[in-house]
TrEMBL record:
Entry protein name: DUF898 domain-containing protein
Keywords tagged on the record: Membrane, Transmembrane, Transmembrane helix
Keyword Membrane part of the UniProt annotation: yes
Pfam assignment, any one: DUF898
Organism phylogeny: Bacteria, Pseudomonadati, Pseudomonadota, Gammaproteobacteria, Vibrionales
Length: 380
């Protein structure tokens, strides 16, 4: 990565073979104990990664107590079981249980975030998270409800005007899609803004000026590039395969009869469409690669943007003294993701430790702190 003056690049020295011994023991003991060992597994794993991650010449540390984690997890499980049972008896509605879980989900996420931050240290100074439950509710529940409402609204509008070929119908569809699109960007940007501005190191806060417009532009570019490919694969790939495997009426809803080319549909069905093995596996693989590509691209762009906006304030007089950079590239992350996926598939999951090591090593070597690290000791 291109280093700036006073740039301190992070580095990771963990090894796949070394971590495999920890990982396989964690998996076996978690299975044997029916999940009871999972808190110890998490602590062992995090300590390995933190202890092998260095900034300047010092590593990070993880101090969590697995016994306390187990008590918290069991308490949540007992609460959910009791709430669902009581609801099924007195309210006679099994949806109450999931609704209760959704209601307490922000509290669980906030507790986990605070705990992980407080159990992490660098140079004997602890991190912390000061985000409020009210703020997380507004983002995770409030914005999510708006987003899902806009999705439902788009589906309703699209179905309602699907027979209308007028310009007004096109405009209504476009407006509904724009609202749905904007609400998703609003939700994602809200999550990043909430978490990026909630962390502290010692008594100094992290700040990040996250702009919703940036996310709108990002997802617009993604839609512009991937939409034609997606619909081409849908109409000329998955729908013919669905006809072959499931039959005409079972696979196609009325909506597809309205939009799918009639002559092409009939030729597939009545002329005996018989895909060969290569065709059967090609379309799912292409869809998978497209999904990996979209995920890799958005991960690179968002991470690089958020880190470029992130600052650690040292003093109000001098302004931000520490800045951060992320130099991920789409080509490198895409190659790494495909390699890690293939590694885990062909090793039947046993290659996961190496995949995790590869990912952490790549992320750390493309992350840097800009500033005088010697000031770190004065932040507590």
């Amino acid at each position: 990565m291109n280093q700036q003056p006073n740039s301190n690049v992070m580095h990771f020295i963990g090894q796949g073979r070394e971590f495999f011994d920890i990982w396989i023991v964690n998996v076996l003991l978690s299975v044997i104990t029916l999940g009871i060992f999972t808190p110890w597994a998490k602590v062992r794993q995090k300590r390995y990664f933190y202890n092998n991650t260095f900034l300047y010449s010092d590593n990070f540390e993880y101090h969590a107590n697995p016994k306390k984690m187990l008590v918290v997890r069991l308490s949540v499980v007992v609460f959910m079981v009791m709430a669902t049972y009581i609801a099924s008896i007195y309210i006679r509605n099994y949806l109450v249980g999931p609704l209760i879980f959704i209601a307490i989900l922000p509290s669980l996420i906030l507790y986990k975030t605070k705990s992980d931050a407080e159990m992490t240290s660098y140079r004997d100074i602890r991190f912390s998270f000061t985000g409020t439950l009210e703020g997380l509710f507004k983002v995770l529940i409030g914005r999510a409800l708006v987003m899902f409402s806009s999705i439902v609204g788009f589906v309703i509008v699209f179905t309602w005007v699907r027979y209308d070929q007028s310009f007004d119908a096109f405009g209504i569809n476009l407006l509904a899609f724009s609202i749905m699109f904007s609400s998703y960007s609003w939700f994602i940007s809200g999550l990043y803004k909430y978490f990026a501005n909630g962390y502290q190191y010692g008594n100094k806060k992290f700040t990040a000026d996250i702009k919703e417009r940036y996310f709108n532009e990002l997802y617009f570019k993604v839609c512009l590039v991937t939409a034609p490919v997606f619909f081409a694969l849908l109409f000329f790939g998955l729908i013919p395969l669905g006809l072959f495997f499931f039959g005409l009426n079972a696979f196609l809803p009325q909506l597809m009869w309205d939009y799918y080319p009639y002559e092409l549909l009939m030729s597939y069905y009545y002329d005996g469409f018989m895909p060969n093995f290569v065709e059967i596996i090609t379309f799912p693989i292409v869809f998978l690669i497209m999904f990996i590509g979209i995920t890799s691209y958005t991960t690179v762009v968002i991470r690089n943007y958020v880190f470029s906006q992130l600052q650690l304030e040292v003093s109000e007089q001098d302004g931000p003294s520490f800045e951060f950079t992320s130099t991920l590239t789409f080509k490198e992350l895409l190659s790494l993701t495909i390699y890690n996926f293939a590694l885990q598939v062909f090793t039947l999951g046993l290659g996961r430790p190496w995949a995790m090591i590869n990912t952490v090593r790549y992320m750390t070597k493309n992350t840097a702190v800009i500033g005088d690290i010697s000031k770190i000791d004065k932040l507590d």
